[in-house]
């Protein structure tokens, strides 16, 4: 068969696609307690089968992790089933909008648990609780909470929560590209300084100071805290009042700008 691709014994070319109206009918049947159990089970099974293409689209984001596609597909299906069982039909939101973050979250948990860098179970459990609290506070406040707020909600020490969140950060390859603008990409390893080349250290120091002066005040603060005070991105985010994702984005952009000048 043309285009036939099997994952976990499933022929992806034959996967059905459910329309929005049909999905609402199935969810009503599934969530109606007076509905006979066989019909509720059949509705759930049809919802699962009809959304497997959604799982396939999500796992494409994780193709470069080196994990077997079959494993990622099975884990994604777990996230899909959780989404089906917890979806509130009364909310004005499409099922795919609700399900995609749950599938992604399930896959990320699987990747963290199978990370070659081992983290103690107690630290990992604290990190997962912190992530759940972060999602709750984000929904409640309409913004990403600070680590201190998460720690206060958990009733746990700030330092322990911060260490737990840092511990589950996924390692980054030295050959991962961080910037590409139509030319040769810039890799993580390009940011690593080689102290063995001391002949040009003085000139590089002058160029570095000039490059830093060309940055905005917030970018200067981020680089100072990160590379001169040795703080993590989480700590920097908490100190200057922005999210860790914003710190990461600003840091990368600043390093790219400095590299172009130097």
Helices and strands in order:
Elements: E1 6-7, E2 10-11, H1 20-31, H2 37-50, H3 52-59, H4 69-86, H5 95-113, H6 121-141, H7 147-154, H8 158-167, E3 177-179, E4 186-187, H9 201-213, H10 217-228, H11 233-240, H12 244-261
Antiparallel strand pairs: 1-2, 3-4
Helix pairs in contact: 1-2, 3-4, 3-5, 4-5, 6-7, 6-8, 7-8, 9-12, 10-12, 11-12
Strand order, main sheet: write it out: 1-2
Total strand segments: 4
Q: How confident overall, as mean pLDDT?
A: 80
Shape: elongated
Helix content: 55-70%
Secondary structure category = mainly alpha
First CA to last CA: what distance? 56 Å
Radius of gyration: 23 Å
What is the N-to-C succession of helices and strands? EEHHHHHHHHEEHHHH
Largest sheet: 2 strands, antiparallel
Number of helices: 12
Which consecutive residue ranges, at least 5 long each, have pLDDT under 50? none
Strand % is: under 5%
Walkthrough of the structure:
There is one protein chain. This protein is mainly α and 262 residues long. It contains twelve helices and four strands, in the order ββααααααααββαααα. A two-stranded antiparallel ribbon has the order 1-2. It has a two-stranded antiparallel sheet with strand order 3-4. β1 (6-7) and β2 form a beta hairpin. α4 packs across α5 and α6 crosses α8 (158-167). The longest helix has 21 residues, at 121-141. It is elongated, with a radius of gyration of 23 Å. The model has no long low-confidence stretch (mean pLDDT 80).
């Amino acid at each position: 068969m043309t285009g036939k691709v099997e994952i976990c014994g499933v022929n992806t070319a034959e996967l059905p696609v459910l329309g929005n109206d049909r999905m609402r009918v199935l969810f009503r049947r599934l969530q109606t307690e007076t509905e006979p159990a066989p019909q509720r089970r059949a509705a759930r099974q049809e919802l699962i089968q009809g959304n497997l293409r959604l799982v396939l689209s999500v796992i494409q984001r994780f193709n470069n992790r080196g994990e077997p596609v079959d494993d990622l597909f099975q884990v994604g299906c777990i996230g899909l089933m959780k989404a089906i069982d917890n979806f509130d039909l009364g909310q004005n939101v499409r099922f795919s909008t609700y399900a995609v973050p749950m599938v992604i979250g399930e896959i990320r948990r699987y990747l963290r648990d199978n990370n070659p860098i081992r983290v103690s179970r107690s630290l990992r459990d604290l990190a997962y609780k912190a992530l759940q609290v972060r999602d709750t506070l984000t929904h409640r406040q309409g913004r990403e909470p600070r680590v201190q707020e998460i720690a206060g909600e958990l009733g746990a020490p700030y330092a322990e929560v911060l260490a737990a969140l840092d511990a589950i950060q996924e390692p980054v390859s030295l050959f991962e590209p961080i910037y590409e603008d139509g030319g040769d990409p810039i890799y993580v390893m390009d940011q690593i300084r080689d102290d063995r080349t001391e002949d040009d250290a003085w000139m590089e120091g002058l160029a570095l100071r000039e490059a830093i002066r060309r940055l905005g005040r917030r970018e200067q603060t981020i680089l100072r805290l990160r590379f001169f005070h040795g703080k993590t991105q989480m700590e920097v985010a908490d100190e200057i009042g922005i999210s860790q994702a914003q710190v990461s984005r600003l840091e990368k952009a600043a390093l790219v700008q400095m590299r172009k000048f130097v």
